[in-house]
Amino acid sequence: MDKLIQDVLSYSRVVRNESPIEKIDVANLLKGIIETYPALSSELATIDREDSFPPVWGNEAMLTQVFSNILGNAVKFVAPGVKPQIKVWAEPKESNVRILVKDNGIGIAQDQHEKIFEIFQQVETGFEGTGIGLAIVKKAVERMGGKVGVISEFGQGSTFWIELKRFQGGAK
User: Fold this and answer.
1) pLDDT in tens, 137-165
2) Which of 44, 55, 118, 168 has its CA 20 to 30 A from that of 94?
3) Residue 10 lies in a domain
4) Residue 79 CB coordination number (10 Å)
């Protein structure tokens, strides 16, 4: 119940708060998350990430929440006894940057791709969760002017992507 309450409060903050949009150093942000999240330690998960990412327009607190949820799910939703394997990279998309997080998890059936981003919606997997984490991801990315999606098949792992405006100096 405590986890549910905390997740609802996080969702509420993302929905209500006006958050400044500024230049974000994605590589540094990811490095900080990986170094501080115990489940992402090299003993428990293998993470292959680019050393540099193009800077994006975003909000540091929201983007931290986004990547924490996506990386946390990549570690959580693996078959028993399987060490999480995660790859993080970026691709240019016109004036945007698409950041991708690929995992070796249990995957998501195609008919569930949209549902997983709705609040209190969860794919029946036998794993604990509140069904709020990916709703927070979607709302936060949208608040930063971006898009989010997933490429996945059940049993084949998942690739989550977020797309944000590339920082090119000056005003957004």
Assistant:
1) 999 999 999 999 999 998 899 999 999 99
2) 118
3) yes
4) 9
